[in-house]
Each structure stands twice: as structure tokens, then as C-alpha cells.
Amino acid sequence: MRSFHIITALATLFFISPALSQQCNGHSELCSRPYHQIAFAGTHNSYSAVKGNPAANQNFPISTQLNDGIRSFMLDGHKPPVGSGVQLCHTSCLLENAGNAVTVLKTIADFLGANPNEVITIIWENAGNLDANTYNTAYQQAGLDKFAYTQPTGQQQWPSLSELISKGKTLINFIDTGASPSVPWLHDEFTYVIDTPFTTTDPNAWKCVVDRPQGGSPANIGLYNINHFLYGALGNSNVEIPQPGSASSTNGPNLEQHAQQCTKAFGRIPNYVSVDFYDQGSQGVNIISVVAELNNVTYTPKPLALVMVGLL
User: Fold this and answer.
1) Selected catalytic residue, list 5, 27, 36, 90
2) What's the predicted TM-score (pTM) here?
3) Signal peptide location in the record (predicted)?
4) Which helix (H) or strand (E) holds 87?
5) What whole-number distance in Å separates Cα of residue 34 and Cα of residue 37?
6) 44 has catalytic annotation
7) What domains can be seen in the chain, in order of their start residue?
8) For residue 65, what is the enclosing H or E element?
9) pLDDT tens, 12-68?
10) How open is the CA angle 188-65-59, to the nearest 5 degrees?
11) Quick check: is 90 catalytic?
């Protein structure tokens, strides 16, 4: 009889252990939380890592960002200089052309296929006024559309990470203009997401107010993004460019304070914390540590972007 109880106990442990050990976006604590109650480390102009270009916003490509824990990606969709499709460009394809979007989308598709417990968000700026079906075609060509989750229209309560993962729908997509019922998973951004100001030039003047949509209210819109990146003038011109030289201080305690400020102002943690030069930080603080703090999960310090410099 005693052996029967032992066997039963072992069997019970065997069957419940996978649930206990499941991790969602790297932490078991996040599995049961709704998507709208989680913070995600994000990059602004995520594709913009063209070496030597003063308009570049990142030091490393999206493949490295994924490996480092970035889970929210801001992409700009333009019309290609030649042909059709979606081109990744910064302001203009003449200023910075990062190539066809399918390449980046396939990188994300491959990552999601190899990491089924990770949930990722893509936020599109539809700079080229492309129609939703053009984006749909690019996703299909990349094999990414199968991961796309469709939220019921206007519903501000989102599934938990474990629910998204169990359905294999681990990609959330938004677009600022051009959303269409014909591509229901490409959600209208400002129906669901509030954006803070994004043209900051003073590192001591971060704001936690609604910039977009005009008249948007945190009481009615369930997600919000804080933009935490600096611009500065190019020489004596009026052209504003990213500021890599100050990124370590911008993405250190300054970022932590901005996130805390917005948490207080909005009454809840930000969902997306978007930065330039994500690999930079200071005083033991960076985008990954700040997001871990917001989510109240353990942060394990590690150097970022080691793969790219040949140290791993």
C-alpha cells in the first residue's frame, strides 16, 4: 500500500512538473499574466543598424536583439525604390535603406519557431502608406503570418502569455495607419496603444503624457509605449539624428526613472519600453534590467551583444 502511494506521488509530480517549470518570455511568473499587464523590452527603429550611417538607431541587428531579450520591435514600412513589397527605411530610403522587410520578418519567424515560449510584438509605422495586404504578403513570404494573433476588435483585455503560447499565436502586430478588416491580425495601433512623446532632445525632460492618439485616455486604452531616446542636431543644421554618444547615460538610471515616472502617472507599468542603442546602459542598469524590475521578476546580469563581437 505504501509503495502505491509513493508511485502515485511520483506520477503526480511527473505530470505537474512541466507546468511548474514552464517559462514564458524567460520567466515562469509571466505565464499566467495577461499580455496587457506585462512590460516588454523594445527597440526604436529596430532595423536601423547600418554601420557608419549617422541616422542609425541601433548598433546591432534584430537577430542579436532577439538573443539579448528584446521583445518589441518598431519597424518603418516604405515603398521600395524599385518593385513592390515592404522596404525598411529610416525617414527616407535615400537616408537609410535597411532592405526588404521579408528578410527581417523571416529572422523573427525563425526565432519564434525555435523559441515557442516567447511572445513578440511588432509595431509598424506605415510611412509608405502601404495597404494591409502588402504587409500580409510580406508576412506570408517570411512564414511569419502563422504566428500572428488576432485580438477581438476593440477588446482591451488580452490573453495571458501561456494562452498565446498554447495556441502558437506568439506574435502581436500593430500598425499606425492603414489597418483593415481584411488582415485582422494587423491591429490599428491607436485603438489599443497609447504613445508618449517621441522627439525628445533634453535628457532631463522626459514626459509621461499621451502624445498619440490625440485625446487618448489611459482609462480606455489598455496598452502604452514609452519612447525613451534622444535626438540632436546634425552640426549646425535643423536635421535631427540619434545620439549614440549619450546612449549609456540615456539607457541607465535615466531610463529607470522615466519608467517609474510613467508607472506613477498612468497608474500601471508601461507595456513597451522603446530605446535606441539598446546594448548601452550604465551603473548596472539597462533596458533588460529596467523591464525585469517593472515585471517584478529576477534580473540576471549579462553583457549584451556578445555574439556580434565574437565573445560567445
Assistant:
1) 90
2) 0.92
3) 1-21
4) strand 87-90
5) 5
6) yes
7) 28-309 (3.20.20.190)
8) helix 62-68
9) 444 444 445 689 999 999 999 999 999 999 999 999 999 899 999 999 999 999 999
10) 105
11) yes
